[in-house]
């Protein structure tokens, strides 16, 4: 399984060919997950008229929650980044913590994830 970050799902919703191809490619070989944080980020920016479309898309994914092990991983990442002076968006910390706690590869377009120096993060 892999975790798609918010940036990838937004491109899927915008019907960007590269994102649709990525979704199709991964869907053929494994299950795709997103985080509850990404679900929140997407829903807060979704117009009322598009909620059904977005809800249908979410049914295709496993949705990882922000649980105790995710909190522990996010805190570890926070402390490492703080010590290095490379702080990042709080929601990105939570997403990375969820992916790490679930031992998943995170696929994103968000270059801020470079700060994590995590080999299980793929930046497109």
Please give a structural write-up.
This protein has 124 residues and is of the alpha/beta class. It has a single domain (2-123), classed as 5'-nuclease (Rossmann fold), CATH 3.40.50.1010. Helix content is 54%, strand content 14%. The protein has helices spanning 6-13, 17-29, 36-44, 51-58, 68-84, 90-101, and strands at 2-4, 32-35, 62-64, 105-108, 121-123. The radius of gyration is 14 Å and the shape is globular. It starts with a strand and ends with a strand.
Q: What is the second-level CATH architecture?
A: 3-Layer(aba) Sandwich
Multimeric state? single chain
Structural class: alpha/beta
| Sheet with most strands | 5 strands, parallel
Which band does the percent of strand residues land in?
5-15%
Uncertain regions spanning at least 5 consecutive residues = none
Count of alpha/pi helices: 6
